[in-house]
Specification:
Elements: H1 3-13, E1 26-31, E2 39-44, H2 54-67, H3 69-88, E3 107-110, H4 116-125, E4 131-132, H5 138-141, H6 150-158, E5 159-162, H7 170-181
Antiparallel strand pairs: 1-2, 3-5, 4-5
Helix pairs in contact: 3-7
Length: 184
Amino acid sequence: MTNQEVLVDLKSKFGKDILSSTEPYQMLTIEIPSGLNREVILYLKDHPKFDYNLVDYQAALGIEQLSKLGVILERKKKIATAYLQAVQNSRLETYFESPQEDTFQRFPILVSGQGYEEILRYFKSIHIGTQRTTDEPLHRVLEENPLEYPNAERLFQRGHCIPIYPNLTKDNVQRIATAIRRIY
């Protein structure tokens, strides 16, 4: 059985229903990063020699994603094009200008005139998940004067990263673009 077949097998069997099965299973333990403070136990049928840890799964998933990198980047560019059109028709700002030149790991928008929490509540009310552009700017971690870093501070206080996942449906992208236009 290849690594990919094992991952598919695990994905199909992951959950509580596997624990109630009467078939003989071999136990495999995966250590989750300490931030989650728990351990996940999976059972593999007929594969006692496999001993994967979380890094192995991350690597396998990464290899699979890399094989689809071109498709992922093209999809993100299409999503970004819809978002850029929405931003151009609003008072919002973004640091992106051209989907053909920029690479979109995240899509930050800056909202002037309204606080971060107010815009966060707006997005939550219409079931759109956003994130801060960063958890805490480096100058704050280093206890530097925020006035010496106005751009980073502005991005932190006013910036929202909106979803740009390649698996968003066209309807989701349109709904997010409409939400961007309605902020003001």
